[in-house]
Amino acid sequence: MDQIIIQTLHGLVNGMVLAMVASGLTLIFGIMDVVNFAHGDQLMLGAFVGASVLGVTGNYWLALLVAAVVIAVLGVLLQVTTLRPLIGRDPLTTILATFGVSLVIQKYALWQWGPSVRRISEPVPGEFTLFHLQYPWYRVATAIMAGLIIGGLWLFLKYGKYGIWIRATTQDRVMAQAMGIPVPLVHTAVFAIGAAMAAASGVLFGPFAGVTQTMGFDFTLRAFIVVVVGGMGNLGGSILASIFVSLLEAYAAIVVSPAQAVIVSFVVLVLTMLFRPTGLFVPTPK
Amino acid sequence: MLVLENVDAHYGKSHVLHSVSIEVRASEVVGLLGRNGVGKTTTLKAIMGMVRRTGGRITFDGRDLGGVPPHGLAGLGIAWVPEERRIFRLLTVLENLRTGLDRPGVTPEDRERLLEKVYSYFPILRERRNQAGGTLSGGEQQMLAIARAMMLEPKIILLDEPTEGLMPRMVAQIQAIVHALHRDGVAILLVEQNVPLTLDAAGRVYIMEKGAVRHHASAAELRADQRVIHEYLGV
Amino acid sequence: MSPHSSQCSERPGVPGAFLDARARVSTLTASSPILTTEALTVRFGGLAALTNVSLRVPAGEIRGIIGPNGAGKSTFFNCLTGVLRPTSGRIVFNGEDIAGLPPYTISRKAIARSYQITNLLPGATALENVRIASQSRHHNWSMLRHHRAYRDVIDRARAVLADVGLAGKEDELAVNLSHGEQRNLEIGIALATEPKLVCLDEPTAGMSVAETHATVDLIRQIARDLTILIVEHDMEVVMGLAHTITVLNYGEVLAEGRPAEIQANPRVQEVYLKT
What we know:
The complex is a heterotrimer of chains A (about 290), B (about 240) and C (about 280). With about 290 residues, chain A is mainly alpha-helical. Chain A has helices at about 1-30, 40-55, 60-85, 90-115, 135-160, 160-170, 175-180, 185-210, 215-230, 235-255, 260, 265-275, and strands at about 125-130, 135. Chain A has one domain. Chain A is globular, with a radius of gyration of 19 Å. Chain A starts with a helix and ends in an 11-residue tail after the last helix. Chain C folds into two domains: about 5-110 and about 195-275, P-loop containing nucleotide triphosphate hydrolases (Rossmann fold, 3-Layer(aba) Sandwich); about 120-190, no CATH class. Chain C has eleven helices and ten strands. At the B-C interface, strand 2 and helix 10 of B face helix 11 of C.
């Protein structure tokens, strides 16, 4: 029973972090049909930058902010130099491009920070007591932060002036251009937002398991699964799917080892593709 | 103001516009008539830069549109109301309007004024302003598409078959809107298959067939002698 | 456009073709219909795309189907070729009820269709495009006879290419042909399935005047051994080619008759000029 409570908490917390990662990915796909294989690596870079800033300043929140901004700028450079010229071409070319970028980022991180694991210390110390169990505060803080950030994104999209631009461009790029919306700029901005969210996720997740060059891969994989299960381009769906899949994995980890628990995600993916390919949390298309 | 000179266009290999020359002066209503598939919509798409122009020039207020990016046309004063309306289905009516309203140089007073104007032309839009665009009926979507274009305070509106698929009562409403826009001094390039509406609203009319302009006359001339209309639009 | 027949017989390159056709029409009415639809109705939820459409097309006729936008012309073709299942009504082709059958079955029953948007295999040559269509007709599981059957298919494909005026372009990639040649290739692909009924969906769409005339001549030639249904917006093409014309409006049959009758019908003019 204790296990179940702990795993539920794990599932929820991991789900929130995954939701942050997946939101950026699904937003990017929804607006410009780009499958960003480098997304997880942006997360990893963000974690490293965060760890470095933390090492220099000792301030977790500053590290979070700087990481997000730096990776956002990198995202802009990436999009403008690598992806914008590929607009209109076969989608396979953007997949290959982002895959290539992913490899470059991983090796760069190895060169810059070396092969040892970095530590990001917990921003909020101590544990709280639930019934008779101990659970670290910082993990709760992480889930709350992720929730706030995703909530902020949702509010921005719904009510902000530029949120309307982004939503209009996602629905009908050509008509958006005809209304004077600078679509290439919107694409770049969305990519930057996605990158910033990935970086922030990296810093948030840092204390959980340490910062390594390959930490991005697990996230990319899970994020893609979640984006498909939640419905591509569907923000709400990917958030629900993140929590759903993370909870399932957490419960599976009771029975099998955590490394094997990831199989659960794949099973969910396959079932979704078989029975509800547009997404589990998407209303059936008419 | 808007001048197409000997414009040629291709869809891939298909040569869809042949040396099309059309002119719309400031505050004019110009009709573009022709059967299905003759190239009327393609002409509008050529102006909007959506179709590959392989010959000729398109200028607006003297400026060559060839170098203007697709999102720059609205800023020059060109608004487009496409045949399929293309409402942003998941945005509310008000958000649809805001895609045209949220541009630089619009003061809060301007916003109020423009919204009030559009709501007075189309009261149903005020009523449905917080409803998603996709829930509106066909006629209401057409009105929203026109209202959205008006938000740009354009010098010219490219109106593509606004009455297609609408009930006769709505057709009359569209006719009234066209007149009102004309009175406001907005130029209109009206693409239509509805002959009486076009002859009533427009001063001059071009008739197209097989991708080329075949006839050009004043609406009055065409009203007086129906044979030309019969030849190009009849059976 | 004047409804007088003299105008039609002045069409360049085909003197007397119209007179030919008129003579054929009188024999056609005597033959049994190859295609009949009875009270064909298609409803999408509350929207009626076709209502009670009843047609009888004699074998060997060229039947034009016209009507304003949204009249139901494409829906009609979709029912005939099995893409759409009618809500009610019958479609009888060659004595067989075909309503609701899937497209590949209908293709085997000898109905072919060309589409508005060019539908070729761009990376294959003209010959390959036609050969693939022809193979569908002469499917043979026998391993022993495989090689000889293969050559027959190629010969047939070559003959079809010649029929559509592409004899010299067999090894040209479809994507490299001109627009008019591509559209003719499409007609060739339809012919390669050895149909008895060919449905042409706006065959002259996007064509120049010259290309249109060439396609009209081609259609007239292939019509000798076939029944053809043609949907078109180009009135000159339809009035010049068709023996009989059916006018659809809002999913219903508004009028039917010879081209001259249709042109003189005030209700039809009204529908086109006041739409």
